[in-house]
Amino acid sequence: MLIGLGNLILGDEGVGVHAMRRLEAEYGFQPAVELVDGGTSGLDLLPLLKDQRRLLLIDALASDAAPGTIRVIRNQEIRTALTEKVSLHHLGIADLLALAELLDYAPSEIVLIGIVPERLEMELALSDCLRRRMPEIIETAVGVLAEWGIESRRSPALAPALLTASAA
């Protein structure tokens, strides 16, 4: 399962949802991967974890690193990484992972792709910085899935249109 997290009305805070939607629109996965818009749900996601072996989360991540920095954080390190909050849903995600572990719902492997935001303002669009980094965010997610033996195929019909749009 891949869950994109974030608040779409706070600019870069919604980067996880934007990335998940792009993966959903542009890629096919074999074996199938369940793509979930987790928004700011937190504990509401608990029932979805029950039968998952692996979980990939994509979210904005508070850090002193430069905006647009992408970090891949695994398993127990995730809760530590979420101690500094970008948004209130980080408390929910940390609690979600702790409760999933307590209830024996926790997937055996959890990876968080965390992206350092540039702007957290009332805005629907990502900053230019994160828009430029989106191909690398997608590539990172596809790479984690490949580690898990999941083949990703880009939708051929979309590729030329997306290349033209990216160049503009």
Automatic annotation (TrEMBL):
InterPro entries for the chain: Pept_HybD-like_dom_sf, Peptidase_A31
Name this polypeptide is given: Hydrogenase maturation protease
Superkingdom, taxonomy of origin: Bacteria
Entry annotated with the keyword Oxidoreductase: no
An example Gene Ontology molecular-function term: aspartic-type endopeptidase activity
One example of a Gene Ontology biological process annotation: protein processing
Family stated for the protein in its record: Belongs to the peptidase A31 family.
Membrane-traversing stretches: none
Keyword set, alphabetical order: Aspartyl protease, Hydrolase, Metal-binding, Nickel, Protease
